[in-house]
# Entry
Amino acid sequence: MNNLWLGIETSCDDTACAVLLETENSAEILSNELYSQIDEHKAWGGVVPELASRAHLEKIVPVVETALQKAKEKAGVELADIGQIAFTRCPGLMGSLLVGANFALGLAKDLEIAAYGIHHLEGHLAAALLNQSLNPPSNGVSLTETPFSPPVFSARRADEGNLNPPNLAVNVNTSPILRPSLEPPFAALIVSGGHTELYLVKDNFEYVSLGRTRDDAAGEAFDKCGKIMGLGYPAGAEISRLASGGDPHFYEFPRALQFSSLRAENATRNRKADEFLETMANLHKEEFSFSGLKTAVSRYISEHGEKFVQENMPNICASLQEAIVDILSQKAVTAAEKAGVGSLVLGGGVSANARLRELLQERCDKKGLRLIYPQKELCTDNGAMIAYAAILRKRKGKLEREVKVKSWNPLAE
Ligand code: KG4
Ligand code: ZN
# Structure
């Protein structure tokens, strides 16, 4: 069937596969399976590339088989019905990407269908466009007339407070009719473990970079600061969970490349110096920097002692989270405004963060911007987002049979 897609994602530490039924304006997720390698990597405090490739090799067949089985149970479709395959070809860990790409290309050859390599970050963007109905615009205007009943999800690590045990291939979807996508141009903020990117997304999949991190990604900041605080790996969802019971202004962690923060840190009260700092901050307005947070957290712990930190963990997590989401939301809204667009799309693993969504919504509302983000279960890596990115490209006549695997490949120059 020409409208049946298999989406495969293996760019990092998740082996994921989804079956999507392309509909006139959107897509229906028939299955969305995932094997999370968190347990394999936990002991090392981060992803070990060689272990990741081996786990992908071991799990790709069972994950794909389960996705197909679930799609069969739901819609009666078979492997032979798959019309095309989309897989992540960049960016990511080379060994991990190669497992997914080779599997996809081999299967496509066997089925005599096409396989399309997709950019992972475009997948994160597509995830937000896959289902806008859970996030109606704050002015109450519905995007479409399509009747909608919320899907029932069993989520994994992205979902705060609704965690399945990791390391299981879990069903992350049974979804009804999904809604059509927002049309470009719009601004996009992609925040994940490996990326923090601000784009202007123009029609026909042209991307203009509006800003990016100069060092650590936002998710990396959560994970590395969490590691310093002894919170395990990955720490984003755990920090967010702990932060919900804490005071975000308990301690003001530094906001890098932000004028008010630069001034507060330097406390010059000198007009010339302030002017200089303002110029510097303006120069880097849409650039992020999160690497200093690791030093700030380490210093905070050594100054206050382990006992104090343990006793105040929710407050410290809330303060750290606030520092990250404050700067993300402030710069994203400024960039969207400057780009002259009416909508901001949020995507990537960190977009599961409830406080980031809340603060962005607040700031978008103030500027009359519409905010669109993925349903929680589609924030972190999954196969559905890859298949949907291919569907969106196909609609614009921009789907190419690019299969070259690359560990890094910018979406925008
Ligand atoms: O998109 P993703 O699954 O993988 C990459 O492409 O990197 O993102 C994973 C990142 C991790 O850094 C993880 O800590 C972070 O997303 N993350 C969160 C939350 N859930 C996942 N960060 C903050 N709050 C969350 N609720
Ligand atoms: Zn990702």
Summary: The chain has 13 helices and eleven strands. Residues 49-75 form the longest helix (27 residues).
